[in-house]
Give the backbone structure.
Amino acid sequence: MKNIKESEIAKFWTDNPMIFQGKEYGYKLNLNNPDEIFKNMERIHRRKNSLHQKDGEPFLSKFINYKNLKGKTVLDIGFGIGWLTNELQKKAKKVYGIELSKTSLKLSNYRFRNCKNVSLKIASAEKIPFKNNFFDFIISYGVLHHAENDNNCFNEIHRVLKPAGKCFLMLYRKGGPKYWWSKLFRQGILKGSLYKHNFNIEKFIHSVTDTHGLVTKGAPLSRHYTRKQLKKKFSNFKKSRFIITGNADEWKKKPFERLPLTNLLGNKILHWLVGISGAYWFIKLQK
Ligand SMILES: C[S@@+](CC[C@H](N)C(=O)[O-])C[C@H]1O[C@@H](n2cnc3c(N)ncnc32)[C@H](O)[C@@H]1O
């Protein structure tokens, strides 16, 4: 497979910023109306009975201890439209953000125009423009699997984290119904997309990942990791935890929606199912 350059990745995300629109989210949004974009994003992320936060608490509060961020210096890598930057800036002393997408930077600069403790810029996770041991906490949600060279990013995170500093990452997981059923079987085999990509699974997976409900043709690069791969990649951290998670909707979509059982399952069982089969890794690291 041809090497994908960072300039191509930056262009894709500048042309297709992660604003949560499309078939999957039921919206076509207008980039000239950022307030509507932020309102829609809140609606999507603040779902009731979320696996990741209790109702009314900050996003991901089951995994991130926001109280510990008081007085801390934080980095949000690939901040997108800033749904996590916003939570972090309420607690941390200073939140820095880096992004490749110029559109995301424009939207987020507008969003945080009155927040003096937020500083955002265009830069790559492969070359984080900060000195060694600078950050207390680093977060990156759904970003580094899209980078040209993920190992460069992981090494950079280790470099700029203070000793004992913490990091939270979301990366795609190779496994579960979304990967095997929705992507490989339905789109790859039944719809013939795998054939169109000369049975190159990697190339095919990139083409059907982050299509934003088919508004776009898929991000240039979207890696999916096994636990074994992650353990190796993060072996230089003192502590690491790899948690399987995802979205409860994975078990409500085809073919499971046809099973009356899935619709009858309570949230507890759905959450348990996602915890053993979900499409994401939540990764907690300490340097
Ligand atoms: C799926 S979006 C996620 C955005 C945001 N974190 C969110 O959860 O909505 C992926 C983002 O990663 C950014 N990105 C990809 N590679 C990057 C890199 N090497 N350095 C910084 N940002 C990167 C893209 O520009 C894009 O905005």
